[in-house]
Design goal:
Mean pLDDT: 92
Distance between the termini: 63 Å
Number of helices: 19
CATH superfamily of the largest domain: ANL, N-terminal domain
Shape: globular
CATH class of the largest domain: Alpha Beta
Low-confidence stretches: none
Largest sheet: 9 strands, mixed
Strand order of the largest sheet: 2-1-10-9-11-12-13-14-15
Number of strands: 26
CATH topology of the largest domain: Rossmann fold
Structural class: alpha/beta
Number of domains: 3
Radius of gyration: 24 Å
Length: 562
């Protein structure tokens, strides 16, 4: 493929691909004890049928429709159908509370919803009671076969595809709510051009990989902007088969079963796997430990483009078979590349996997930008950065260090929030709120503008950097730094499984040895885990720092009094 194809909108793209690849495997999911797939041709017929029947049920152009389901084929079927009739999908996390759903219904004005299970339907009914009601609620797994009827029309897709082709790229494609690490989620208005711009830029980025007939394991929620763009549109447009994981709790088993060639790897997943590998190595006999250390050491010399000795060149392929291949086997053994995003990846964690022969491409973005802004090229990785801007993205650093972005990827604004929109988009430039620097064309994120800690002596400290270093330690699972207005920093720390307070204290001390005097952690306290269930972790695995400190306010107060 010489260049990325052009389509007027996302629905047209999906129908065009369905017409061109009728028998090609498209989506796979786990049902009744086995992996079950559907082809592109079947998808096209189901999406067209869904569009016709949703319109017959009263869904009109401009209507917002909540989508709440796990990663499964019905998600892209429903969303493509809604886009084709110019309705506006509003993806919602299955982990949302009743009040979360009520906020989305109220804020978006959605009067219809499509959900996967009766349990989620009960939540939506309770939310609708708080938000003014629903005119239509479709429950996919309900016993009344409602969904089967909606997608059961076997007529060709031609009429709906022709209608979709008239939708301009500037039309609103979807309304994605930011997961919110602080206040209430805001609806980000993404027109078709945003996602298509991301797809075109990502195509040029991954060109060196020569991707063809790949298999992608999708486990991040499709309601998250990254998975929504990359897992639902971009990779599918390349002919990749998307396999929906059974959930994060089954991810390790699914990687062994599916054996993906492409994967999204949020830093937390990489940190956990690295910690498990190191823990297992520590239990091995000294000889095996030395082999592992040699494999990593020689691998790092390759990463750093250092010259290998004659002996190292002889040992390298042997160590690859004996050591590195076993770690790669945890990911299924066929991985071509993995993109890390969603949060800061500690460079040491990235270097660990690169040394073992894995292609880890760290990237950066936010919902307001489609969401991908930059990423590391697979043939020129600098893992301490988030790569270079995608083709078509203008990026510059403001005088105060803030990253500014302009181009087709920038959102239209926040839904019903003109003042907030004006505050972040000025003269066409999206003000990301992130602090960064450019180094030879590569972008390095140093902190969030609003999260920078200012100590009582006036020193500015980056909590994200220190938190990343702490969580890279095997003994520490999660960490939050505090100290605004104080003379020094404190840390709230969650131990990794199997480690006690003493091990955590030693890990904090080791981290301090790599920090400047100002950055060092003077006090720390061990606290319970931050989870989605207790509201301290977003569905995309980001720690809600403000809420963590609020939930542990008494402990923070004691740390600051010492």
């Amino acid at each position: 493929m010489q260049s990325y194809p052009t389509w007027p909108n996302l629905a047209s793209m999906m129908f065009a691909l369905a017409r061109g690849w009728p028998d090609k495997p498209m989506l796979r999911t786990y049902r009744d004890g086995a992996w079950v797939g559907i082809t592109w041709g079947r998808f096209g017929r189901m999406a067209a049928s869904c569009a016709r029947n949703l319109r017959a049920a009263g869904v009109s152009a401009g209507d917002r429709v909540l989508l709440c389901m796990e990663n499964r084929p019905e998600f892209p079927i429903a969303e493509t159908a809604l886009m084709a009739i110019r309705a506006v999908p509003v993806p919602s996390y299955t982990t949302n509370t009743v009040e979360d759903h009520a906020h989305l219904l109220r804020d978006s004005g959605a009067r219809a919803a499509i959900v996967s299970t009766p349990a989620l339907a009960d939540k939506l009914r309770a939310a609708a009671a708080k938000a003014g009601g629903l005119d239509l609620l479709v429950v996919i797994d309900d016993a009344d076969d409602q969904w089967r009827h909606i997608v059961g029309d076997q007529r060709p897709q031609d009429d709906i595809a022709a209608e979709a082709s008239t939708i301009p790229p500037t039309a609103l494609a979807c309304l994605i709510y930011t997961s919110g690490t602080g206040g209430s989620p805001r609806g980000v208005m993404l027109p078709h051009r945003c996602v298509l711009s991301n797809c075109a830029g990502a195509f040029e980025l991954v060109r060196p990989l020569r991707l063809k007939d790949e298999i992608y394991l999708s486990y991040l929620p499709l309601s998250h902007a990254y998975e929504h763009t990359v897992g639902q549109f971009f990779l599918l447009s390349l002919g990749t088969e998307v396999v929906y994981a059974r959930g994060v709790e089954h991810l390790a088993a699914d990687m062994l079963s599916v054996r993906p060639t492409i994967l999204t790897a949020v830093p937390r997943v990489l940190e956990v796997i690295r910690a498990r590998v190191l823990t297992q190595v520590a239990r091995e006999k000294p000889g095996k430990q030395r082999l592992f250390q040699m494999a990593v050491s020689i691998g790092l010399k390759r990463v750093d483009k250092q010259r290998l000795t004659v002996m190292e060149r002889l040992l390298d392929p042997i160590l690859d078979r004996l050591v590195r291949a076993k770690v790669r086997a945890r990911f299924g053994g066929r991985l071509v590349a993995a993109m890390s995003g969603g949060a800061r990846l500690d460079p040491e964690v990235g270097r660990f996997f690169l040394s073992l022969g894995m292609c880890i491409m760290q990237g950066y973005g936010q919902t307001e930008a489609g969401p991908v802004i930059s990423a590391n090229p697979p043939d020129a990785i600098r893992i301490d950065t988030v790569g270079t801007p995608l083709r078509g993205v203008e990026l510059r650093i403001a005088e105060d260090g803030e990253i500014l972005v302009r181009g087709g990827l920038v959102m239209d604004g926040y839904w019903n929030r003109p003042r907030e929109t004006e505050a972040v988009i000025r003269d066409g430039w999206l003000h990301t709120g992130d602090i960064g620097e450019l180094d030879g064309g590569y972008l390095r994120i140093t902190d969030r503008k609003k999260d920078m800690i200012v100590l009582s002596g006036g020193e500015n400290v980056s909590p994200a950097k220190i938190e990343g270093m702490l969580m890279a330690e095997t003994e520490i699972a999660q960490a939050v730094i505090t100290g605004e207005g104080r003379s020094g920093l404190s840390a709230l720390v969650v131990p990794a499984e199997g480690y006690d307070d003493v091990a955590v204290a030693l890990a904090v001390n080791r981290t301090n040895l790599r920090l400047s005097v100002t950055e060092r952690i003077r006090r720390h306290a061990v606290v319970p885990p931050f989870t989605i269930e207790n509201g301290l972790l977003t569905p995309s695995q980001k720690i809600r720092r403000v809420l963590v400190m609020r939930a542990n306010s008494e402990i923070v107060a004691r740390l600051n009094q010492r």
